[in-house]
Amino acid sequence: MRRAFCTVLASLGLVASSASCVIVDPGCGVGGTSILISPTVVFVAVGQSATPRASWCRNGHYDPMSPEWSLGSAADANVIGLDPTTGRITGRRAGTATVIATSQGVGGASVSVTVE
Hints:
Number of domains: 2
Strand order of the largest sheet: 2-10-9-6
Mean pLDDT: 80
Order of helices and strands: HEEEEEEEEEE
CATH architecture of the largest domain: Sandwich
Radius of gyration: 17 Å
Distance between the termini: 43 Å
Shape: elongated
């Protein structure tokens, strides 16, 4: 079944691998390198946590990475707690906040957080 799936994708020009199935997104990395965050919208309750994932998007491939995470503004610290190394977001009080991922001079990827 996996081989059939890879064969179908290969015929569409979306796979480049002989031993395993690797999905290549031609829209990823067009015009340079960027950071992809998943999910881009997070909902947590007060006291609960969530941790988004980050990937490099370059040359049609997504590679896992560990960016530096920061708050969009100082006021966001009233709404959420943030671990700058892991990206773990913890709800402090109801409201909205923004978390930004940055690595190697590349930034701009963000997570919109709503604490309920």
